[in-house]
Design the sequence.
């Protein structure tokens, strides 16, 4: 294999090679490689084009922090995953990856013209340039901008994979399995706590996997990792979750984990879900998420070949890959020396180590070790610029004077530049949990302060430096977490040796920024293409708050969340505005830490599993007869029953006439039903509904109206009195749950003096409405024990008997305006009774009708539907049902509300009927009404259409509308304003059909 | 997802509950005696507290009971839950941690 691969070492399996393609070209690699390590082993640094300027970009990091190397991995047309970090893509044999955001090819990208145009694409460019005229943005400007500036393309086919979801509980959740995390997990688990350890990488160990010489308790760090993971795996109360990212920290220690199960497999078993979303509820959390090295700011700092020193060390020690042959190291932090030492030992020529710090500032063991092997160290030295085309070719060094001024120095040829601007503790999860952050001046970093949850941070993520210190800190955190869950731990001691490096650094505000950089431009946020110049411009344009600067320049936004850029942006803004970083403040960290797929969030909730379905007794019967369903809440209700080639219009006309001229049946089982029982049941309903219930005799029913205490109509329904202390309340289909909850509220918290119980009986009763002049004749064939005659069972009467041999509660009620009954039977008998009524009705030509016909029939009678003809701001008087109010009652819910001046004022919208001048025109529901034709704009809207249908019985259209002072406008001509012109209408009574009500009382 | 300690059932996950707005707003005993201003305050004026807030919850998909809770709106941590009709317990200023 290539000469960049070391002869031995690392975590790859050199006996197991594989091949993959990148942009169509085939490469060789080993099991254990990531896409990034394999490409680097093949000498490929150019992995992507930048978001806005299409600049050539190589890999900057080696893990989740990678902002540049975003790729698309494709298994087939339906399995194409865009925007994956090449540093996190585990290779399998045959993997197909492509770079993004380039055309026609990665090395020759037309869009790179944006780079030449970059002086004209400053921060806020889109906001400034393309917002006028406003209408042009969506049609003219946005499409090509979106096409040119972008990330990968999502597949358009349905996702064929399955995604699992799992809830879990534990005493201690340890996030991150590096030195601190493993120490915490070992300590807590040894104390007997139930522990879950998650780590985003394929292999646990974190940064220890990148160590060469470090030892723990006398063994190499990687051997200690293997032994520790094996110990944990053998404990029954420990669950290890590799390849699992803690992406979000939600209240009450609810942590979202995203586990990747098959992404790394060449041929995953179909039985496996692709990913699993965990919702872990942890009593205590240990955050051990480590720290991320920062880039340095200089022109050309985004060229392929410029990468974090820690990443170069990871590629070498973990993957056996030399990232180049001749390196310049730019050090703002001791960590750079460890990388330089390892690379030099592996045969990479170190051309220079430019240490921005003054001699003496850096003289720890790392510097001493570097000196000892003769590495060319230049103190007070920095990189002024990197140059090259598709790969860095040289750097120009500068010499930093004591006053901070920089004078130009040598130009040095190289093929990689290792940058080390200090470490940023990964405080994302602590911050997401609403824990406070504090800026530590000595560390030059934000570290966790007081937590808001039962959590503690440990190790590098809270600014603890050095391997031994991190292990000890992790063990202490594990012990404290275990103790908090009632498990006493003995804190183990670790003996560690490592070339420790501090977190230190001077983030962003390197000396050259003040003197040389402007007008030169250095990249701060690589993923969003934000430069120092953009930040400076934002400042000049008056943006002071870091939150505003973030939004104006987009620094730290999107999937990157400022992992490598956040502190550099802050440092630069602070230096520019002569403030301290702590004064500039920090923007909020958002979840997810790294992107999570929609599939993982959706989990099982797809297709049939998306939402529960409530079915009525006639459900299967309807399917067998070709009925058409509509969704009403979770209910499936039949909208209409087409016969032959009928469309909805024809079917509804036929169904309506069937009811008016003969008899129809309708499944009304979805009506909400509540049984109200107790010696104070009548008093409760008296206080709850507007009506008077005290004088309702058992065996009788009444139309009830429910208000809220603001006086507006909330629900309605027929309420029957079954006995002195027992009522059967019906509600609207959609209002059942909220009415029940409102009843409970008043019973439990306001009227605790009342002896009353309520029970939801919606699911207990099946209801078949039988309506029409021949309804009695149909039921007479089936009902026993009830005298159906008009005198024995008048309108709004209730009787108990049997139908088809099952218990029957029969309501004589009508929502159609015809003679009507509602057959209530125990729900399990619903289908049987439905079919029996249908059979018995055949000789009378019974018509089965759906919700659409039901709506037309009730509208012909002017019966309102709460929520359609009312909108939450209508009083009973507005809706024309004030007659229902019990006038003698001292109080009921809404009575005081109705007395408010605005609810009694003139000019309120009142429900009336509308008759179009052209009887064949059916109005649009929601259309607005105006008083005059051909008026100049602007003109006042005086109302709107609430219901509109074609009425077959009347041979014309009908409509209900809410119109200001509507009842005083009877006979007036108004106009419905439509895009195609005004539609003239006449204001009429809302009762279109049988206004005397003669057809009901037969 | 919050964990809410129902005074009747114990700790349960948030999807079992519905939120009921600010607590301790009693419906006036005789609404007919309330002035328009008093009725307006009863209907609409709410504190929107930043910090410790007394609020109503209902264990709707559990025991069905209404109860009250003290929650710090800046951290979402509950300081106490207690039955409807009871006075809120005293809590340390600034919450428990
Ligand atoms: Zn409960």
Sequence:
């Amino acid at each position: 294999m290539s000469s960049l691969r070391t002869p031995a070492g690392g975590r790859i399996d050199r006996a197991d090679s594989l091949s993959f393609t990148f942009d169509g070209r085939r490469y060789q690699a080993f099991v254990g490689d990531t896409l990034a390590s394999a490409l680097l082993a093949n000498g490929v640094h150019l992995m992507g084009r930048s978001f806005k300027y299409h600049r050539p970009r190589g890999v900057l990091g080696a893990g989740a922090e990678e902002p540049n190397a975003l790729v698309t991995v494709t298994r087939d047309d339906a399995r194409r995953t865009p925007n994956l970090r090449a540093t996190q893509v585990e290779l399998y044999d045959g993997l197909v990856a492509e770079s993004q955001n380039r055309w026609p090819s990665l090395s020759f990208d037309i869009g790179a013209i944006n780079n030449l145009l970059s002086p004209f694409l400053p921060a806020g460019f889109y906001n400034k340039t393309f917002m006028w005229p406003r209408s042009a943005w969506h049609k003219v400007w946005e499409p090509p901008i979106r096409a040119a500036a972008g990330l990968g393309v999502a597949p358009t086919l349905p996702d064929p994979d399955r995604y699992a979801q799992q809830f879990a509980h534990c005493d201690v959740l340890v996030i991150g399995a590096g030195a601190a995390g493993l120490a915490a997990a070992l300590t807590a688990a040894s104390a007997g706590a139930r522990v879950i350890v998650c780590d985003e990488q394929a292999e646990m160990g974190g940064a220890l996997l990148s160590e060469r010489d470090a030892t723990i308790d006398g063994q190499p760090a990687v051997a200690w990792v293997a032994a520790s993971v094996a110990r944990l795996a053998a404990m029954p109360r420990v669950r290890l979750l590799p390849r699992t990212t803690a992406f979000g920290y939600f209240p009450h220690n609810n942590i979202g984990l995203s586990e990747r199960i098959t992404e790394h497999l060449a041929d995953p078993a179909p039985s496996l879900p692709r990913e699993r979303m965990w919702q872990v509820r942890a009593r205590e959390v240990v955050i051990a998420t480590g720290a991320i090295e920062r880039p340095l700011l200089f022109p050309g700092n985004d060229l392929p070949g410029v990468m974090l020193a820690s990443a170069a060390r990871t590629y070498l020690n973990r993957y056996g890959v030399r990232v180049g042959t001749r390196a310049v190291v730019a050090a703002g932090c001791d960590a750079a020396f460890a990388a330089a030492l390892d690379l030099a030992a592996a045969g990479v020529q170190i051309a220079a180590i430019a240490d921005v710090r003054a001699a003496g500032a850096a003289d720890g063991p790392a510097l001493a070790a570097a000196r000892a092997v003769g590495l060319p160290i230049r103190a007070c030295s920095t990189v002024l610029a990197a140059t090259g085309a598709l790969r860095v070719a040289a750097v120009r060094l500068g010499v930093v004077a004591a006053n901070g001024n920089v004078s130009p120095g040598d130009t040095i040829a190289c093929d990689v530049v290792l940058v080390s601007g200090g470490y940023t503790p990964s405080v994302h999860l602590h911050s997401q949990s609403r824990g406070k952050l504090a800026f530590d001046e000595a560390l030059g970093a934000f570290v966790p302060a007081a937590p808001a949850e039962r959590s503690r941070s440990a190790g590098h993520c809270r600014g603890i430096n050095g391997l031994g210190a991190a292990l000890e800190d992790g063990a202490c955190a594990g012990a404290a977490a275990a103790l908090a869950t009632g498990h006493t731990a003995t804190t183990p001691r670790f003996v560690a040796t490592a070339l420790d490096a501090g977190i230190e650094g001077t983030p962003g505000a390197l000396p050259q920024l003040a003197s040389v950089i402007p007008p030169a431009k250095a990249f701060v946020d690589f993923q969003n293409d934000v430069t120092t110049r953009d930040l400076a411009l934002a400042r000049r344009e008056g943006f002071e708050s870091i939150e505003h600067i973030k939004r104006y320049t987009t620094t730290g936004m999107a999937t990157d969340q400022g992992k490598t850029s956040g502190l550099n942006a802050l440092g630069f803004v602070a230096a520019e505005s002569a403030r301290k970083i702590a004064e500039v403040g920090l923007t909020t960290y958002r979840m997810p830490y790294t992107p999570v797929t929609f599939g993982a969030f959706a989990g099982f909730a797809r297709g049939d599993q998306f939402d529960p379905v409530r079915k009525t007794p006639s459900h299967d019967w309807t399917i067998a007869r070709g009925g058409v369903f509509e969704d009403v809440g979770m209910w499936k209700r039949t909208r209409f029953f087409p016969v032959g080639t009928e469309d909805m219009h024809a079917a509804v006309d036929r169904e309506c006439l069937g009811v008016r001229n003969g008899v129809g049946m309708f499944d009304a089982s979805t009506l909400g039903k509540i049984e109200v029982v107790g010696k104070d049941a009548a008093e409760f309903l008296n206080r709850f509904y507007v009506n008077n219930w005290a004088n309702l005799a058992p065996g009788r029913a009444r139309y009830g109206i429910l208000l809220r205490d603001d006086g507006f109509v909330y629900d309605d329904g027929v309420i029957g009195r079954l006995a002195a202390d027992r009522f059967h309340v019906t509600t609207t289909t959609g209002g059942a749950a909220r009415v029940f909850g409102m009843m409970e509220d008043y019973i439990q918290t306001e009227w605790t003096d009342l002896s009353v119980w309520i029970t939801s009986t919606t699911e207990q009763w099946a209801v078949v409405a039988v309506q029409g002049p021949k309804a009695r004749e149909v039921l007479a064939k089936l009902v026993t024990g009830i005298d159906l005659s008009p005198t024995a069972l008048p309108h709004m009467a209730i009787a108990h008997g049997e139908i088809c041999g099952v218990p029957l509660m029969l309501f004589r009620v009508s929502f159609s305006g015809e003679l009507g009954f509602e057959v209530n039977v125990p729900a399990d008998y619903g289908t049987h009774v439905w079919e029996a009524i249908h059979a018995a009705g055949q000789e009378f030509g019974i018509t089965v009708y759906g919700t659409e016909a039901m709506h037309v029939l009730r509208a012909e009678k002017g019966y309102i539907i709460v929520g359609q003809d009312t909108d939450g701001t209508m009083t009973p008087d507005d809706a024309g049902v004030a007659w229902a109010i019990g006038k003698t009652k001292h109080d009921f819910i809404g009575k005081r509300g109705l007395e408010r001046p605005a609810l009694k004022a003139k000019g309120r919208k009142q429900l009336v009927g509308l008759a179009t001048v052209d009887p064949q025109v059916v109005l649009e529901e929601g259309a607005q009404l105006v008083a005059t034709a051909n008026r100049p704009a602007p003109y006042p809207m005086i109302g709107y259409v609430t219901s509109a249908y074609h009425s077959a019985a009347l041979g014309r259209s009908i409509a209900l509308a809410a119109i200001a002072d509507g009842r005083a406008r009877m006979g007036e001509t108004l106009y419905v304003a439509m895009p195609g012109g005004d539609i003239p209408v006449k204001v009429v009574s809302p009762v279109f059909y049988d206004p005397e009500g003669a057809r009901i009382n037969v | 997802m919050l964990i809410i300690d129902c005074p009747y059932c114990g700790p349960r996950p948030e999807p079992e509950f519905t939120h009921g707005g600010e607590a301790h707003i009693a419906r006036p005993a005789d609404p007919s005696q309330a002035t328009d201003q008093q009725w307006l305050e009863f209907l609409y004026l709410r504190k929107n507290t930043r910090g410790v807030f007394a609020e109503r919850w209902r264990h709707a998909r559990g025991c069905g009971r209404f109860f009250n809770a003290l929650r710090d709106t800046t951290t979402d941590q509950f300081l106490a839950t207690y039955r409807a009709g009871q006075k809120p317990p005293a809590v340390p200023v600034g919450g428990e941690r």
Remarks:
- Chain B touches chain A through 30 residues (CB under 8 Å).
